[in-house]
Please model this.
Amino acid sequence: MITKKVLMALAGSVVLTMPAIANDEVMKLTQDPNQWVLQTGDYANTRYSKLNQINKDNVSKLQVAWTFSTGVLRGHEGSPIVVGDVMYVHTPFPNIVYALDLNNDGRILWKYEPKQDPSVIPVMCCDTVNRGLAYSDGKVFLHQADTTVVALDAKSGKEVWKVVNGDPKRGETNTATVLPVKDKVIVGISGGEFGVQCHVTAYDMKTGKKVWRGYSMGPDDQTLMDPVKTTHLGKPVGKDSGINTWQGDQWKTGGGCTWGWYSYDPKLNLMYYGSGNPSTWNPKQRPGDNKWSMTVWARDVDTGMAKWVYQMTPHDEWDYDGINEMILADQEVGGKMQPILVHFDRNGLAYTMNRETGDLLVAEKYDPVVNWTTGVDMKKDSPTYGRPAVVAKYSTEQNGEDVNTKGVCPAALGTKDQQPAAFSPKTGLFYVPTNHVCMDYEPFKVTYTPGQPYVGATLSMYPAPNSHGGMGNFIAWDARTGKIVWSNKEQFSVWSGALATAGDIVFYGTLEGYLKAVDSQSGKELYKFKTPSGIIGNVMTYSNKGKQYVAILSGVGGWAGIGLAAGLTDPNAGLGAVGGYAGLTSYTALGGTLTVFTLPN
Model:
């Protein structure tokens, strides 16, 4: 049953009607470490908890408190959320939502099961994952695989409103969570491998009415850019910058999808996110910088107008999606305190930027094996300022169509994919789950047909040569200097999101299925437990009745685990991942389980 505490919390949120109040409610809830109402923990995407009952001195005693089977296989990304005494759990397609009673070992309070056409499944590029729910204004928000955005009453699970954000018949799908901010719910879209012109959209939180939509490429009225006021590295972007670096009308099928994470700075009223790869994966077919794919965006949440942008990988040649999270912190960089944004890009470079101005402060490799670039030009007076210098040997553009460019590091799934890093204000360090994987990449000519794959490259992936033999590392990173502080080797890519806590520990999961806890200062392993399936979910924590819990979804899948999740055996299937991760079948099997841990009484 729903407790008095929850009913009061939910009832209180329902009467908050002023636009700013809904935002204040989320900020207040995220500041309460007993709850976890956003996938990212807070608006800054730090994935940090002030709870310290579980700490480095006692985490070795952690034990399973209770478990819950979701009843669904395929990859389980994202995490549960907790509001009051209720936990809300989501699944991959068909995106079932459960409300569980935390006072009764997860008894089911209600279940929401959307009716989706299974034809959406083959349109989802890299497994049928979903990165989870968010809470605000008495509602739980779900963005389904078929792009339907649903607001559910948190008490009953009944639909309050729903709206369709895209068309799967054109290749538009969704795998991401949402950002509830102020009186809006902000959502993205997937479909870069189907030639979608991607966007972010704001819907009214109470009604579901569309408020604004900003595309990744196109004319200024579609990208919501001001040719003078919107800047790139301090300079105006100019008129129709989202068209000028495309050939003809290619921008209309340009990709730049927005299936990653969103952060928000209430003082600046700016939201931050990354846009993905341009379409196709064959760079010869789309000459130019292909703006604004592969870009960090800062948008005003009220109007959607872009304040500044930064394109990390102009004219992407390797599918280095730029959708990874933007983590917000305040740190001393270059001798002065600055409001920073830290982004670990798929391209293997970690960026530290001033989130107010868009100034580039640091850009360094966060895996030493990265070889497609020698680094980013950091000289402000240089004509190539902010651009990465491409190594000709690893350039699929320069090597050309139907040529297999070998030994490119990282692989297309990046030094890090969507699995989110964490930041600890106690240590000042960022904790990053990484891939240690390289690839061979052969582009070929492809024709665009709406709703059909628009990839144009064949890939194979393998562990980084001349290294530790494994396919992953879990690292601590100093964003002030661009240096690795410590690094733990892993046999497979670390495809799980990290969690840092005031207990001086960092949690993460492994593809074999281990939940691990390490010392935040040294990286020393303090605890591990094998869950029923490989972990690609994100670790979260909450407390109930004065007791701290840690929870994780296990269920192998995602791009790294697509071979297991979809039963694929061709080494080149799964956009090249199946062969690279073939060994995973010896360590884990399909599943769909929530495991909740706590200390013994």
Summary: The radius of gyration is 22 Å.
